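SAMPLE LOG
Freezer: B-3
Tube label: C17
Construct: single chain, 46 aa
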Amino acid sequence: FEDPKVYKDKVLATGLPASPGAAVGQIVFHADDAEAWHAQGKTAIL
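STRUCTURE (predicted):
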């Protein structure tokens, strides 16, 4: 939108700013790996 006059008076959509969230940490792709991590005392979530 290079020309603000084209869209300034027309509402295209409304809503709340949101995101699915964020996570920090490490990931495993197999249940065996998650079990091994858990055995080592690391947190594992499937």
